[in-house]
Amino acid sequence: MRSVRARTSLGATLVVALALAVAGVALLAVLRGSLASQADLQANVAARSVAVQVAAGTPFADLDLPDEAEEHPVQVVSDGRVVAVGEGIEAIGGTASRSVRPVPAGPAQDADDERGGGEVAEDVRYSTGDVTVEGDSATYRFAAVEASKPDGREATVYAGSAVQSAAVSGVRTAMLAALPALLLVVAGTTWLVTRRALAPVEGIRREMAAVTASADLSRRVPEPATHDEVARLARTTNETLAALEASVERQRRFVADASHELRSPIASLRTQLEVGAAHPALLDLPGAVEDTVRLQGLAADLLLLARLDAGERPGQARVDLAALVRDEVAQRPGGRAPVRVAAGERAEVRGSRAQLARVLGNLLDNAQRHAEAEVSVEVRREGGRVLLAVADDGAGVPEGERERIFERFVRLDDARSRDEGGAGLGLAIARDVAARHGGTLRAARSPSGGARFELRLPAV
Question: Using CA atoms, how far apart are residues 322 and 347, in angstroms rounded to an integer?
């Protein structure tokens, strides 16, 4: 059964059927117990009314038994003999004797006793038996009450009251007859309610199928006006589609920008090689080497970005940023802007030494490219984090551009020259590596008026 509506309707119907069955059984049990208690009470009243006559000394043959034996059949037993039976009783069960013919008592035994009154016992016993009265049989609850005549003889009065089994049967029949109709109503209602509830889900499915077929990630699924789980599913789906659209668009732009950036050094290198092949004396070997190095660096940047986009996790080695800064600065050529280092104490973080060195190198390249006279590097601990700051005394970054410069292939107007600037990937790589290490990288204004890049990483 593949339909959610069908499974829900069937499950709801089964649960209701089980609940109704349990409730029906409990109801019938309570009804049967109530009717039995009522029958016991009526039988007890009838038995005591006869027992009072026995205790008053009324002869057994003169006892005033109930006129309607069908309602209250009575049997009186004394000394093991049946001494009185209700009129019309043809068979009796549930009493001390199954005899329906009274045995006449002797004159002396059945005479009125003027010596005083007898007693009626407080205790009562109950039993169940079948009685046939004038050809009709039924089940009765009998109350047995002990009574003593004034002369001391004991007698037991059995009086019955019919158990209303017909009422129980009627209720059971009515419940069984109504059960199928009720279950049909429950199944139909559940089917309609589920269909209405799942209609937005079907709309989401159709729209997602259309997105898959058309590859148009700008489409969005309909969001119902409700605030239930289906509405949250629709919103989450649209958020996923938006994130996917942005990711695909970013990937397309990345491929386009990468192709554009690769085209220039490849074209320049090809031109130089073709000129060198035709005129060896005109070969610009240093220029060809420079283009090759730039092409190699760009390919390495693109490869690193691809690994970062694929979710590559950095290592968990302990890296001393202070020592890393000193080593990297010592290996760099002097250039036109010397680097001043302020990194004394150990400042350890966890991560990849190679990737962190790449971040530092990119920040130093950017600073030296824009500095007027000097570049400063600072490393210090700030509570549970380590700060690595690289600042220059150049023109700085306008406040409105401080986030855009971290986008891929973005170069500001004063740094668009490929001879002076890079491909616009250095800062993007630095921020991605910082994020992978659980840190942040932001641009600010340095005290000297230039740019200041602050890398913060969790300290060990």
Answer: 6
* Residue whose C-alpha is closest to residue 424's, from 332, 302, 316: 302
Helix (H) or strand (E) holding 387: strand 385-392
CA distances from 241 to 185, 209, 227, 309, 423 (A): 41, 13, 20, 18, 30
Structure tokens belonging to residue 422: 């890079």
Query: Nearest-CA neighbor of 204 among 234, 227, 226?
Result: 234
Tell whether the model's pLDDT for residue 350 goes beyond 90.
yes
Query: Taking Cα atoms as reference points, which of 135, 124, 110 lies closest to residue 158?
Result: 124
| Amino acid of residue 259 | S
Task: Give 40's contacts (C-beta < 8 A, 6+ positions apart).
Answer: 126, 141, 143, 161
- Mean pLDDT (whole number) for 285-305: 79
Tokens for 104?
């006449």
Q: What is the pLDDT of residues 397-419, one digit of tens each?
A: 888 888 888 887 777 654 434 44
Which value, to the nearest 10 degrees, does the dihedral of the CA atoms of residues 169, 171, 176, 178 take?
150
Per-residue pLDDT tens for 58-72? 898 888 888 777 888
**Angle of the 4-55 helix axis to the 165-214 helix axis, nearest 10:** 170
Higher pLDDT, 276 or 390: 390
Start-to-end CA span in the chain (Å): 56
Which pTM value belongs to this model? 0.52
d(CA 401, CA 411): 10
Per the structure block, which two tokens stand in for 37? 């208690």
β-bridge partners, 77: 82, 156
CB atoms within 10 A of CB 92: 26
The secondary structure of residue 65, as a DSSP letter, is: -
What residues does 444 pair with on adjacent strands? 452
Which residue, chain included where needed, has tokens 């590559």? Answer: 312
Of 297, 356, 361, nearest to 335 by C-alpha is 361
3-class SS of residue 426: helix
For 184-211, the pLDDT digits (tens) are: 988 888 888 888 877 888 888 888 888 8
